[in-house]
């Protein structure tokens, strides 16, 4: 088979750049190769402008025109600029040095910038630029893409929780009928977990370092021993919206990244739990799915409407977590001052978060198609009077009836029981009449405790 070398949906090796490419488009400005280059340019220019403002005798402060030229390189960075950097990289075989040479190309023809060109990348190691770029890339992706999408999911869950707060639901523990709840309360449970997971993701503080080859400002001090380089570095990083990590080796240790990836994986695990439960409820007939004209559920069984969105979400959440967990376990480990394994795996940030985006989108689509089948839910409850053994034996305990658990166990365990049989049992109990009346008035649909109120509180 002859394959066209240009990338397309049909010849992409990864589904993230093939089948699911459109769902990952929002990540490309941040986590693509071009996005990485754009952030490196931003960091190099922030460092250069910071140096111009540091009062160094050989480097006067930039004029407004020079600052505008530099800032426009960040604002207007394009794929053509990224390709120009790649041209340099093919010669240097070093991606950060290629950015430095590209910036010097851009300084050419501007006398003030030309005079300052040797201060581009001054005293920096490549990792000063890369770790700061990665911090910006991840922070912006988290704040502008991941968290908004997770909040959409949270809002969808809250909406179902409120709309279905009063719909009684037969619970299942160990797969067996158990104390009823409401459909809304089940979604509220997930919403509460996801809300807390979102807060955990948002709370992670991104760190960065710009302190030289082994984290000690050696080169900086050799040139300008009078400058307070830690304070200067902190100012540059703070202006980029980042917090300085003071104690590092050549690389920023990536512990904060590991925290972030673990936090996102935790949210994903909650969503896997949701997708599996909804899949089960669809299987029981508790939900129907809105149909789309022309869709096929099976190549041979015309009646099928598969829960494909929830299956797609579950599978892609698993893929995301596999990569996220490798990142969180690998990145904080470096041989001595550093090796390049961190650089290699960091090129897969888009893979991990790309699978997240595909999964979140699928989950939202699935939730949007659900229609509650109240008749099926109610029918299961109406056929399960044995679940009222719990409140009956609890009331018996209150009034000192001997062996209440054992009596209800003998009556109900492992077998169905009719409404009439349960009521006949209740009538024989030696308890106050008001308690007896309360038990006789109970139904599987009414025995929901505070589920409705709890669902509305989320």
Automatic annotation (TrEMBL):
Protein species of origin:
Sheuella amnicola
Identify this protein by name: Adenylosuccinate lyase
Any single Gene Ontology cellular-component annotation:
cytosol
Q: Which is an annotated GO molecular function term of this record?
A: (S)-2-(5-amino-1-(5-phospho-D-ribosyl)imidazole-4-carboxamido) succinate lyase (fumarate-forming) activity
Q: What are the entry keywords?
A: Lyase, Purine biosynthesis
GO BP annotations, alphabetical order:
'de novo' AMP biosynthetic process; 'de novo' IMP biosynthetic process
- The domain of life for this entry's organism is Bacteria
**What Pfam families is this protein classified in?**
ASL_C, Lyase_1
Under Enzyme Commission nomenclature, its number is 4.3.2.2
> Transit peptide: is it a keyword of this entry?
no
Q: Which residues form the Fumarate lyase N-terminal domain?
A: 19-316
Transcription regulation: present as a keyword of the record? Answer: no
What reaction(s) does this enzyme catalyze?
A: (2S)-2-[5-amino-1-(5-phospho-beta-D-ribosyl)imidazole-4-carboxamido]succinate = 5-amino-1-(5-phospho-beta-D-ribosyl)imidazole-4-carboxamide + fumarate; N(6)-(1,2-dicarboxyethyl)-AMP = fumarate + AMP
Of which family is this protein a member? Belongs to the lyase 1 family. Adenylosuccinate lyase subfamily.
Q: Which residues form the Adenylosuccinate lyase PurB C-terminal domain?
A: 334-448
CDD domains according to UniProt: PurB
Q: Which NCBIfam families match?
A: PRK09285.1, purB
Please give the pathway this protein is involved in: Purine metabolism; IMP biosynthesis via de novo pathway; 5-amino-1-(5-phospho-D-ribosyl)imidazole-4-carboxamide from 5-amino-1-(5-phospho-D-ribosyl)imidazole-4-carboxylate: step 2/2; Purine metabolism; AMP biosynthesis via de novo pathway; AMP from IMP: step 2/2
What exactly does this protein do? Answer: Catalyzes two reactions in de novo purine nucleotide biosynthesis. Catalyzes the breakdown of 5-aminoimidazole- (N-succinylocarboxamide) ribotide (SAICAR or 2-[5-amino-1-(5-phospho-beta-D-ribosyl)imidazole-4-carboxamido]succinate) to 5-aminoimidazole-4-carboxamide ribotide (AICAR or 5-amino-1-(5-phospho-beta-D-ribosyl)imidazole-4-carboxamide) and fumarate, and of adenylosuccinate (ADS or N(6)-(1,2-dicarboxyethyl)-AMP) to adenosine monophosphate (AMP) and fumarate.
């Amino acid at each position: 088979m002859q394959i066209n070398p240009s990338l397309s949906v049909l010849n992409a090796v990864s589904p993230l750049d093939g089948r699911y490419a459109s769902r990952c488009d929002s990540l490309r400005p941040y986590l693509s190769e071009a996005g990485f280059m754009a952030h490196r340019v931003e960091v190099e220019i922030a460092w250069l402008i910071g140096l111009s403002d540091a009062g160094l005798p050989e480097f006067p402060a930039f004029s407004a025109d020079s600052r505008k030229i530099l800032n426009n390189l960040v604002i207007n960075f394009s794929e053509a600029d990224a390709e120009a950097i790649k041209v340099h990289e093919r010669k240097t075989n070093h991606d950060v040095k290629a950015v430095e040479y590209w910036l010097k190309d851009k300084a050419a023809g501007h006398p003030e910038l030309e005079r300052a060109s040797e201060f581009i990348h001054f005293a920096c190691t490549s990792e000063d630029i890369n770790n700061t770029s990665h911090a910006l890339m991840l922070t912006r992706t988290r704040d502008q893409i991941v968290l908004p999408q997770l909040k959409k999911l949270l809002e969808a869950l809250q909406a179902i929780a409120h709309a279905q707060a009063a719909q009684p639901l037969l619970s299942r523990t160990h797969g067996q009928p158990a104390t009823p709840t409401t459909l809304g309360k089940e979604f509220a449970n997930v919403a509460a977990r996801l809300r807390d997971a979102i807060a955990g993701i948002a709370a992670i503080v991104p760190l960065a370092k710009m302190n030289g080859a082994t984290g000690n400002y050696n080169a900086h001090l050799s040139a300008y021993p009078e400058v307070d380089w830690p304070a200067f570095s902190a100012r540059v990083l703070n202006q980029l919206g980042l917090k300085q990590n003071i104690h590092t080796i050549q690389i920023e240790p990536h512990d904060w990244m590991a925290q972030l990836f673990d936090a996102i994986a935790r949210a994903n695990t909650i969503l896997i739990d949701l997708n599996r439960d909804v899949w089960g409820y669809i299987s029981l007939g508790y939900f129907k799915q809105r149909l789309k004209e022309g869709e096929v559920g099976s190549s041979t069984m015309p009646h099928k409407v598969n829960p494909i969105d929830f299956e797609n979400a579950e599978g892609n959440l698993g893929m995301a977590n596999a990569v996220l967990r490798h990142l969180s376990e690998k990145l904080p480990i470096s041989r001595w001052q550093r090796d390049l394994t961190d650089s290699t795996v960091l090129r897969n940030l888009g893979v991990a978060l790309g699978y997240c985006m595909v999964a979140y989108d699928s989950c939202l689509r699935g939730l949007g198609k659900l229609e509650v089948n109240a008749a099926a839910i109610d029918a299961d409850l109406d056929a399960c009077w044995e679940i009222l053994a719990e409140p009956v034996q609890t009331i018996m305990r209150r009034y000192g009836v001997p062996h209440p658990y054992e009596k209800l166990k003998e009556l109900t365990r492992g077998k169905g029981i009719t409404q009439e049989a349960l009521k006949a049992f209740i009538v024989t109990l030696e308890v106050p009449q008001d308690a007896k009346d309360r038990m006789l008035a109970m139904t599987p649909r009414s025995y929901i405790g505070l589920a409705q109120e709890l669902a509305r509180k989320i």
